[in-house]
## 1
Amino acid sequence: MTKPLLRVQDLHVEFATHGGTVHAVRGVSFDVKAGETLAIVGESGCGKSVTVQSLMGLIPMPPGQITKGSAELMGHDILSSKFIDGQDIRGSKVSMIFQDPMTSLNPTMNIGSQIAETLEVHRGYSRRKAFNRAIELLELTKIPEAEKRAKQYPFEFSGGMLQRAMIAMAIACEPTMLIADEPTTALDVTIQAQILDLLKDLQQETDMAIVLITHDLGVVARMADEVLVMYAGQVVEKGPVDDIFYRSAHPYTLGLRGAMPSNDPQNNQQLTAIDGSPPDLFSPPKGCGYHPRCPNAMVLCNQRAPVIESLSEQHWSRCWLHHADSEQRPQGLYFRPSAAQPNRTPEQKGTSQ
């Protein structure tokens, strides 16, 4: 087995506020190998961005705090130190495309200088050489009249062009890992496809790993090798992209798929919304966080946190429906083919909600 480039184990992140402690990330674990794309999906507020920002050292401490867990990049503990061989990993070995480019760029510097600064700091380029390379990177991300645009300021760019400038900055030093937080959110469909193709080409050329955060399951299907499905600060399902789409094993994943529009003319089914709201992470639920919204919830789901149930070597789900004692097998949900359902006494049976 290839050793992972990034290994995160049992990560917990909290925020101290006037209203109490927010348990934003609760025991997240994952591996990312070189040349792989890991997609993290879930509703807003489920902990996707906080997870990767905590790894990059980008959450303010206080009020944020990593209370538990470990994260290793190429065997180096990046929670205790962001430097490898005296060099800051941020920008050189790990780059990030931020969700909101307007607030991530310096309004007092032109676009070319901001991209060039990365090359000057991490690669030792001269100012002229770095600026010329910045123009090439803008051309690479399909920005027209790149030489002219490089001398302009962020307020002179549209939202989509700002996003492409952020991507140019992120890939400038050819990092070993790219964290992309909604990288195509402000782009039209045509440019979105071009940017995704660009990221895939760069990945093939440099063996770069990508951690992709997105709400767009279409982007996940196009880009990802593995998928983490997050809910209420936890990973509720993990597996290869084909398993997540065609053998969904958690009711929440099934709900996300049901809310996904399709361009298939044969598919005239109405989109299905997920009723209710995510739980309050000031006081995380004792049992399954998805319990109040789950159509297949049992009494046990509200009382005890579900354990991880393995469905294959790479695919698992955090759901009581997959426990050996569960008699429920909801239609549409994938179950381990060899899983036998033993006979149980009435005392052992969970009462359906």
## 2
Amino acid sequence: MTRWLGSGTMIRLALAVTLIRMVTSEQSTGAVGFMQNLNMGYEQLHSLYVVMLIGSVAGLATSALTIDPKHLLMPLIISLALMATGSVMDSFSNNLTRPQNLYFSQFLLAFGSTFFLGPTMVFGTRNVLTNPRNLVSFSVLFGICNNLGGLLGAALLGTFQIVREKFHSSHLVEHLTLSDPLVAARVQSGGSAYGSLLADPSLRNLAGIRSLSNAATREANVLAYNDVFMLIAVIAVLTMIWLSIRALWLMSTTKAVDPAPSVPPSGASHS
């Protein structure tokens, strides 16, 4: 039903689902990638996955208990607000951040990622009730938008992280010169760790330089992931503003004011 799918209502619904799914990519591409960059293995992320699972189940349960067919845009706005809050919290991470430091922010993201599903489905099926033939078209549209949003989010965030890592890496490296006493001391301390393995001073110095380079790359990745988290928050906030404006516009246009019945003056004469 291409004409129905091309209507303004369904296009806005598809765009909203795609954008929200892009925001939810923060968990798979952002948080998990960040932890792996800090050499956290899957066995060390079990507790974080459990928190994500609890947040997802809580979001579904809350959505089922609180859904109101008359106010379907509000849950979407709340979901985006929660996910934006979690992303902003993650954007202040550093190389000492561990999975337990992300429990609350990832719970918010997991909660918001499922809290919007019920209202979205109700909103779509409400438009299907007028013509049941559109049910298959809506199911296909909803599935495509979910997959497309996830793929776009992963591709966008992954590319953005690489670009920002190169930027931060070049910015950090240009300030690392051996003429700087602090840099020289860091290289010497890094090489001294291999003193029992490398007897040649030049090899120890090379190992210290390599250790410093690895540390700079790690810090550049940390800064890049912080930028990724902030980008997700910006996308969530912009989507939230758009949906809020849409909700306000619908409220102003659908609010009907019944005209007061005209009553003749009490002292009017009758001919």
